[in-house]
Amino acid sequence: MSVRTIGLATRNVHKIREIRAMLARANIPVYIRTARELNVPPPQETGTTFLENARIKARYYARYFQCPTLADDSGLVIPALDGFPGVHSARWGADRMTQEEKNRWIVERLQHRPPEDRTAMFVCALVFADRERILWETEVRVTGQITPEPRGHRGFGYDPIFFYPPAGKTFAEMTPEEKNAVSHRGRALRAWLRFLRTWTPQQDGAS
């Protein structure tokens, strides 16, 4: 397989590290460019769904990278809070709250709720685009529960308050390998890797 150039529409170092590691383990040779290299403002994420925002980011950055680009839009959905934070998971409180404060805010809002009201879903939408054309996309959801207290020091974001019952751990208590095996992003990325193994750019007009 020849080395291809692929853009990653993210500045998040944790996501970049996860994707690089999964590509390496899958032995798929690619040259990665990331949004951290670009001196451009991020796009306005005006979508009402994760997929809509991922499409916006993939198309936006693909124009700058001039190569097929993968965009992720993911977040935490809590039905008892009317789906909050949902598509606002990353942007909510970004200029005034630390991630630890955001996690604490959620925990406190659910403090006296029964177990059935503590249900939460991690959602990951991945879109792979070349300029305006969507080459591939998927959305994956993983169901768990919000913990009474943050637990674990691995992972990032909302991982310390997301308990995954089949594993008996929060995402932040898992090793990277354990988390990637079951997480929303890990499952979505494995589907993308399967696509990459069979993808022939000349067949779909990609650069």
Give a brief rundown of this model:
The protein is α/β, with parallel strands linked by helices. 32% of the residues lie in helices and 24% in strands.
Set down the secondary structure blueprint:
Layout (H helix, E strand, L loop, with lengths): L3 E5 L4 H13 L4 E5 L15 H16 L3 E9 L21 H11 L9 E12 L2 E14 L15 E3 L4 E2 L5 H7 L1 H15 L2 H4 L3
Parallel strand pairs: 1-2, 1-3
Antiparallel strand pairs: 3-4, 4-5, 5-6, 6-7
Give an overview in words:
It is built from 6 helices and 7 strands; from the N terminus they run βαβαβαββββααα. The protein has a single domain, classed as Maf protein, CATH 3.90.950. The protein has a 7-stranded mixed β-sheet with strand order 2-1-3-4-5-6-7. β1, α1 and β2 form a beta-alpha-beta unit. The chain is of the alpha/beta class and 207 residues long. Helix content is 32%, strand content 24%.
Name its key features.
207 residues; alpha/beta; Maf protein
- Per CATH, the class reads Alpha Beta
Q: How many strand elements?
A: 7
Largest sheet: 7 strands, mixed
Per the CATH scheme, the topology name is: Maf protein
- Tell me what portion of residues adopts beta-strand conformation: 15-25%
What structural class do helix, strand and pairing data support? alpha/beta
**How large is the count of helical segments?**
6
- Low-confidence runs of at least 5 consecutive residues: none
Q: Which radius of gyration do the C-alpha atoms yield?
A: 17 Å
What is the N-to-C succession of helices and strands?
EHEHEHEEEEHHH
Average pLDDT rating? 92
Shape: globular
Distance between the termini: 16 Å
Percent helix: 25-40%
What is the level-2 CATH architecture name?
A: Alpha-Beta Complex
Spatially, the strands of the biggest sheet line up as: 2-1-3-4-5-6-7
Query: What is the number of domains?
Result: 1
